[in-house]
Specification:
- It is a single chain.
- Helices cover 47% and strands 7% of the residues.
- With 90 residues, the chain is mostly helical.
- The protein has a single domain, classed as Herpes Virus-1, CATH 3.30.40.10.
- The protein is elongated.
- The termini are far apart.
- Bound molecules: zinc ion (2 copies).
- One zinc ion binds next to β2.
- Pathway: Protein modification; protein ubiquitination.
- Pfam families: zf-RING_2.
Length: 90
Amino acid sequence: MAQRLITRTIANELAEFGTSLGADSGTTCTICMGEIVERTTLDKCGHSFCRTCLDQAFQVKQVCPVCRMVYGHMMVEPSPIYSKLQHFIH
Ligand SMILES: [Zn+2]
Ligand SMILES: [Zn+2]
């Protein structure tokens, strides 16, 4: 009889714990201000966004929309390829 009571209490506590986890502010996407869909976490700074939101943001600039951490490789030196092409043309 007593055992049954204890089991019930634990079940209630687990249910409450689950509810508090669901209210975690970390599930909100700072780009669309909605709940994160297909959660994608940036490996350097740990900020999370919807996959589609992050894709769109990275198309503009490959930086974290929250802390401006730089991601991806910016190809700012196309000259070696350009000179090769020139050589090919001549
Ligand atoms: Zn989003
Ligand atoms: Zn960040």
